[in-house]
Amino acid sequence: MRTRSSRGALGKRLSSSDRATIHDVARRAGVSIATASRALSGRRRVTPDVADRVQRAAEELDYRPNTVAQALRGQSTRIVGMVVPGIGDPFFTQIVEAVEHDLAGSGRELLLCDSRHDPAIEARRVRALLERQVDGLVITPCDATASVPAVREAARSVPTVQMDRYVEGDVTDWVGVDDESGVNQAVAHLADRGARRVAFVGGAPAGSTARVRLEAFERAVAARPGVTVAARALGDFSVEHGRRAARELHASGDLPDAILCGNDQIAVGLLRELRAAGVRVPADVSVAGFDDIGYAALTDPPLTTVRQPVPQLATEAVRLLTAPPAPARPPCRIAVSPTLVIRASTSP
Amino acid sequence: MRTRSSRGALGKRLSSSDRATIHDVARRAGVSIATASRALSGRRRVTPDVADRVQRAAEELDYRPNTVAQALRGQSTRIVGMVVPGIGDPFFTQIVEAVEHDLAGSGRELLLCDSRHDPAIEARRVRALLERQVDGLVITPCDATASVPAVREAARSVPTVQMDRYVEGDVTDWVGVDDESGVNQAVAHLADRGARRVAFVGGAPAGSTARVRLEAFERAVAARPGVTVAARALGDFSVEHGRRAARELHASGDLPDAILCGNDQIAVGLLRELRAAGVRVPADVSVAGFDDIGYAALTDPPLTTVRQPVPQLATEAVRLLTAPPAPARPPCRIAVSPTLVIRASTSP
DNA sequence: TTGAAAGCGCTAACAC
DNA sequence: GTGTTAGCGCTTTCAA
């Protein structure tokens, strides 16, 4: 009468959540729990007759393995943790969706955390995930420097891959797009359409993508004779920042020929505000974004943008998480090439 | 030499993920593991001096409790499972974000699953969550009838709350908005603005919200003399469905005065396509949505819509999950009143 | 092939 | 107030 279930067998079942354990299955099948375990897992040969009996007993009792116990015993939870700066950002949403899908395909689950763009919260969430013995961690560190300790700590105890953004130093594997290439394609496109004075509205360079895209922008413009930087507006990767930048640009009375945005959220806000101000896109000014979130095709005019191959990024990340932990293998960086999607916001 | 950590103490530490256990802390502090546990948890009085020593030992060893072991022992994982039809849908994204936030506030984590609008996948995900001994489950069942078994199974073994959609029968608690009220407000508003012929573009009534909103629409129109149903287009809650409906409506050459959409995604697609076809909103036709997702304020024209108080819904859901399991308390239904947000898509 | 038993890391009786 | 000990449910030696 040791287990909760045998209490149930006495007719004193306290609640329906009193589930059958492997003990119950073994008893019912008339074998030891070891044999029951072997039969159920199929990882070891068992007499066919015995296997059948165990199988049937399990079904009759509606047996469900307790994965918590399996995890404690087997040192693997089959849970992967994920920390993103903001679940609500459509780009991160896409990534979360893709990672969850890939994990589900291999019987793993996703423990999702939102750091709310705050390194302190992020550090706490990472710690909580580690205490939960996650098998791996996917993180988009919100700050290139302030997030270093959290990422380091994660990497010390569990396979960790940074996605999209990364922290300073070669701390862990990283998967993302080649921002330089993406920005280059966008600037080349804008220049080809005749833009001479190009503005950049992006994120403040606390996160790596914000910085890298800005720098790539500067280089891309500098590399093109006749093209100059009309303005830079740095804030966060939000719709609101886009709106603000649009108002300022418009108020300055000196619109550039084209505006490249650090991400689509910014571009969406910018487009909205430009329209409200009566500025015509692309006639008066061309606008391009970065990410290709779902809504990019729905703005008016539809947004030209640099598409991130999200499913591929997710697959690479999950693959790295599972990769054989080659002893002291140096961190790798996988930069997938993005493609420019040309829509009406940059062409008549 | 029983624990992995004592292996480490022998200098044979195999990997840095060889974490200190409570045994190590106890040994270092010179107390028993029970005392260490008590000191660390603070749930029982301990001599101040001893408490200090344990605390220090824990810090020095960088001790982290193993929550898997705590869960196995304590019958609580502090993990809540969540299953939604589609992570990518902005409305569900908002809900996930809000639930995650509320859970984090009470030291719990969110195990997120996407059923991809498929009852079979949904059932598998629910089962996986139950095997993981989640403390509770929040689910938006994709189908009012096909999802019944999965929801029932969940409810049998763990506190479960349905959010937004629900299945037939009083199976579990439910939290959502009062769809009837929301649709009524929208129809009243459209009628007030002079609409006589009103169309409905919504979801096929497999999910509960789709059905309820459609029925509420029929009733609301019927209750208003002079107002009639111009058309019904039922599909899924997607942008694409909205686009398709707009094309059909336009091709029919007989536009209604106003269109109420089953959700904002549909409305966004509809607005896009109407604009492409040269139909003016709201001059030629008014359009209203449901949910008030972030982009509703960013469409052109901005979308009038029924706002769901997402943070409140999430808070209620989390509260119900934690509510004392009054024995055989009948399931409750919490229907929060939504508010109509009037924007330019229905008024000049 | 099968069973007995150890033990994953932790908490809570139960003694002292 | 502190230590000893019995498990939580499972998998995997190690013997038989």
UniProtKB/TrEMBL annotation, chains A, B:
PROSITE patterns: HTH_LACI_1, HTH_LACI_2. The keyword DNA-binding applies. Keywords: DNA-binding, Repressor, Transcription, Transcription regulation. GO terms for molecular function: DNA-binding transcription factor activity; transcription cis-regulatory region binding. The keyword Repressor applies. Gene3D superfamilies: 3.40.50.2300, lambda repressor-like DNA-binding domains (1.10.260.40). SUPFAM superfamilies: lambda repressor-like DNA-binding domains, Periplasmic binding protein-like I. Residues 20-74 form the HTH lacI-type domain. CDD domains: HTH_LacI (cd01392), PBP1_LacI_sugar_binding-like (cd06267). PANTHER family: HTH-TYPE TRANSCRIPTIONAL REPRESSOR PURR-RELATED (PTHR30146:SF148), LACI-RELATED TRANSCRIPTIONAL REPRESSOR (PTHR30146). This is LacI family transcriptional regulator.
